[in-house]
Design goal:
Blueprint: E1 3-6, H1 10-21, E2 27-30, E3 42-45, E4 48-51, E5 58-59, H2 63-69, E6 78-82, E7 85-89, E8 92-95, H3 107-118, H4 121-124, H5 132-140, H6 142-157, H7 177-186, E9 198-202, H8 208-217, E10 222-223, E11 228-232, E12 237-240, E13 245-247, E14 250-253, E15 262-264, H9 268-274, E16 279-287, E17 297-299, E18 309-311, E19 323-328, E20 342-350, H10 356-368, E21 372-374, H11 376-379, H12 386-400
Parallel strand pairs: 1-2, 1-14, 2-10, 7-17, 11-15, 14-21
Antiparallel strand pairs: 3-4, 5-9, 6-9, 7-8, 11-12, 12-13, 16-19, 16-20, 17-18, 18-19
Length: 402
C-alpha cells in the first residue's frame, strides 16, 4: 500500500483520518490490541468509564485540534471543566503548581518556603547546574525540591534521577522570591496557568470513546491483533509476530521503538542507540470510595504512599463514583493486596534521559531518508499529551501527502 501506519492510538488514528479527509484511500493501520485508542483507551468498571492509561483529557489550548476531533465526537457530548489539581505536601493541600500557591499553606510553612526560595540559585544568579537533582535545587529552592519535586519524580519514574536531563524542565517558571512573597501577602496565585487549565471530558463515556469513533470512520483500513515485530528499511517491509508481512511506500510508526525485535537496513550505531531509550511502566487501579474533595486529580510526593497521583473520577465523569490511582510498576509491591480492577501499562512515560535528544534526532532524521516517520509519544519518544500528538499528526500529513 501507499501508507502503512503502525499503531491505532491518537497519533495513528489522526494521521489515518487526515489521509482519508484528503481523499487518500491507499493506507492501512496495524494495531496490536483488539481495539483502538492506545494509552487513551477506556473500559467499563463499576458501571462507569475507567481510563486504563491514567488521566487523559482534551485540552482547550489548540482550537484547530478540537475542531477536528469534534467531527467524530461533537462538542455537545463533552463537559468543559476549569482544572482543579492539587498537591498534598507536609499536611498541606495546595493547588498546582506548588510555586504559585505557597500562600495556601500553613503560615509557618509559608515562611520556610519563602526563606528557601530567596536563596535558590536562580535567584542568586549562580550558574545553572547540569544534573537533574542539582537543577531542581537551583531552580526551585531546597524546600520545593525536597518536599515535592524530587520525591514525586522518584515515585513517578523510580529511577536514578541524575540519568535524566534538564532540557525538558526549561518550561518551569523561575520562582521569584518577590512574586512569591507578594502572592503570600495578597493570598492569590501568580504566573501562567499550567496545562489543562481548562479541559474537556465526555459526558457519557470515557476518553477512549473518541478514539473508537475515529477508528470506526476508517474501519475498512484497520487490522487489529497485529503485533509488529520487525522492520526492514531496505524492503520497506513490516513483519508481525504471526509472520505476516506488509510493504508500503511510506511507513508511519507510532509504536515504541523498543518493540522492534529485529531491524534490518539501519546503521548499526543508530540501531544500538535505540536500546539506550528508557521508559517507565504505570499501573492504574480503581477504588470505589468517593473522596471528600472537589479536585479532579491530586499529586502525592509522600514516599510512604505507593501511588504518585489519583484521578477523582466522580468529579469529572458524570454519574460515576470512586477514583483511580497511578503507581510506578516498581512500587506495586508496596500496595495492600485487594481485588480491585488494575491495569498495567508497560509503556506509560518516555524518560527524558540525558542522551535522548541526540538519539532521537539521529534516528528520526535517518528514518526520513527511508520514508519512515516516527510520530507521537512513542514514535518520537516524547511525553506528549494527546492534543499535541493530534496536532503533530495533522501537520505531518500536510508535509508528506502526495
Amino acid at each position: 500500500m501507499k501508507y502503512l501506519i503502525l499503531g491505532a492510538g491518537p497519533a495513528g488514528l489522526t494521521f489515518a483520518n487526515k489521509l482519508k479527509e484528503n481523499g487518500e484511500k491507499d493506507f492501512l493501520v496495524l494495531e496490536k490490541e483488539k481495539e483502538a485508542g492506545g494509552l487513551c483507551r477506556s473500559v467499563n468498571v463499576d458501571g462507569s468509564p475507567f481510563d486504563i492509561g491514567g488521566g487523559h483529557f482534551l485540552d482547550v489550548r489548540r482550537p484547530h485540534v478540537n475542531e477536528f476531533l469534534f467531527q467524530f465526537m461533537p462538542k455537545e457530548e463533552w463537559n468543559l471543566y476549569n482544572r482543579d489539581s492539587r498537591i498534598e505536601v507536609n499536611e498541606n493541600e495546595v493547588n498546582h503548581p506548588i510555586e504559585a500557591n505557597i500562600w495556601q499553606m500553613k503560615l509557618e510553612d509559608q515562611v520556610e518556603y519563602l526563606k528557601s526560595i530567596a536563596v535558590a540559585g536562580c535567584n542568586l544568579g549562580t550558574d545553572m547546574p547540569l544534573k537533574f537533582t542539582d537543577w531542581i535545587y537551583w531552580k526551585l529552592g531546597n524546600k520545593i525540591a525536597e518536599d515535592y519535586m524530587i520525591p514525586y519524580n522518584q515515585k513517578m519514574f523510580n529511577k536514578e534521577l541524575d540519568q535524566l536531563g534538564t532540557y525538558w524542565l526549561e518550561k518551569l517558571p523561575n520562582v521569584s522570591f518577590e512574586e512569591t512573597l507578594l502572592s503570600c501577602l495578597t493570598k492569590k496565585a501568580y504566573g501562567k496557568q499550567p496545562g489543562h487549565a481548562q479541559f474537556y471530558y465526555p459526558k457519557k463515556y470515557g476518553y477512549g470513546e473518541l478514539w473508537l469513533r475515529m477508528a470506526e470512520n476508517i474501519k475498512e483500513n484497520i487490522e487489529y491483533n497485529q503485533d509488529v515485530k520487525s522492520i526492514d528499511f531496505d524492503k520497506k517491509e513490516i513483519t508481525t509476530s504471526d509472520n505476516k508481512t506488509y510493504q508500503a511506500d511510506t511507513i508511519i510508526t507510532t509504536i515504541p521503538w523498543l518493540e522492534f525485535s529485529k531491524i534490518n537496513g539501519m546503521p548499526e550505531k543508530i540501531k544500538k542507540s535505540i536500546q539506550e531509550l528508557k521508559y517507565s511502566s504505570i499501573q492504574t487501579e480503581y477504588f470505589e470510595e468517593n473522596l471528600d474533595t472537589e479536585a479532579h486529580w491530586i499529586y502525592y510526593p509522600d514516599p510512604k504512599l505507593p501511588y504518585h497521583r489519583i484521578l477523582v473520577r466522580h468529579n469529572f465523569c458524570d454519574n460515576s463514583r470512586g477514583y483511580w490511582t497511578e503507581t510506578n510498576s516498581e512500587r506495586i509491591e508496596m500496595e495492600e493486596p485487594n481485588n480491585n480492577f488494575k491495569y498495567l501499562n508497560k509503556y506509560a512515560y518516555p524518560l527524558n534521559t540525558i542522551n535522548k535528544p541526540q538519539i532521537m534526532q539521529e534516528l528520526l532524521e535517518w528514518c526520513k531518508t527511508k520514508n519512515v516517520y516516527g510520530l507521537g509519544r512513542w514514535g518520537e519518544h516524547q511525553h506528549y499529551n494527546s492534543d499535541v500528538t493530534v496536532d503533530l499528526a495533522m501537520q505531518l500529513v500536510q508535509k508528506i501527502i502526495k
